Amino acid sequence: MKLKVCGMKYVENIQQVADLQPDYLGFIFYEKSKRNFEGIIPEFPNSIKKTGVFVNEYIEIVISLVEEYRLEAIQLHGDESVEYVTDLKNQLTERRALFIEENKQIKKKKNQHYISENEVEVIKVFGIKDEFNFDVLKPYLEVVDFFLFDTKGKERGGNGTKFDWSVLEKYPFDIPFFLSGGIGLDDVEEVQKIMKSDLPIYALDVNSQFESKPGVKKIEELEKFKKNVITNVVK
Predict the structure, then answer these.
(1) Cβ(212)–Cβ(218) below 8 Å
(2) Of 83, 78, 52, 48, which Cα lies nearest the Cα of 66?
(3) Which fold has domain 2-230?
(4) From 75's CA, which of 25, 116, 159, 198 has a CA 20 to 30 Å away?
């Protein structure tokens, strides 16, 4: 079971969370978010995938930030269409091919931004409250790597509340997904229960329930959560 910690903002806190070895660290590039990221991402183990979170952003800006921060995953948290996702992936593939071709030359250039050698994962987010029509996912099945199900609320993520997980019992597809939306330490038993189901849950995504203030994660609570849920859950 994978763990993604989203809404990272401050260098020291990023380093502390990275020491816990989550599988993904999420950086929000959305000016309206209280956790909007601007600055430098410190070095941390390559096993942790840097994930950029975007909301209806111009593709050119997404690609620019992928290259600047060497992002390995993109989380689309807006109303991005299938055409948008397809175009984005095609452009990323072209830039990756160019990078591989010029790899040696690019690495010799100091401070040169470049795209990851690995294919960038694309995660498409959908908000759920008390019900959801899974048919809306069908057009995306061939163009995304994962879905992420979050609580539908006023904010584009980070609302701090859970949706009705029983809605997921009707999930009809094989493509794996991230489970998000107000997950905290109080949900350990509930999380363990849903993890024992046949649902293709790939990762748990946590954010606001582990914060002392927006963008600052509580390290001890995250460590306890990872130990009690992620480490001990065997699918």
Answers:
(1) yes
(2) 52
(3) TIM Barrel (3.20.20)
(4) 198
CB atoms within 10 A of CB 149: 23
Query: Kind and range of the H or E element at 185?
Result: none
For the entire predicted model, the pTM comes to 0.90
Instruction: Please list the alpha-helical segments (H only) found in the chain.
Output: 11-18, 59-69, 82-101, 103-108, 188-195, 219-225
Task: Show the CA angle centred on residue 29, arms to residues 131 and 79, nearest 5°.
Answer: 35
CB 233 within 8 A of CB 24: no
Q: What does DSSP assign to residue 32? A: T
Mean pLDDT of successive 10-residue segments in the chain (235 residues)?
A: 96 97 97 94 94 98 94 96 97 84 59 64 94 96 97 66 93 97 93 93 96 96 91 56
Nearest of 140, 28, 9 to residue 79 by alpha carbon: 140
Closest residue by Cα to residue 77 from 218, 225, 207: 207
CB 177 within 8 A of CB 201: yes
Q: Measure the CA–CA gap between 7 and 48, rounded to whole angstroms.
A: 15
Contact 222, 5 (CB under 8 A): yes
CA nearest neighbour of 63 among 98, 34, 36: 98
Residues in the chain, overall count: 235
User: Which residues fall within 8 angstroms of residue 30, CB to CB, at 6 or more apart?
Assistant: 36, 53, 54, 55, 57, 77, 156
Domain boundaries, the chain: 2-230
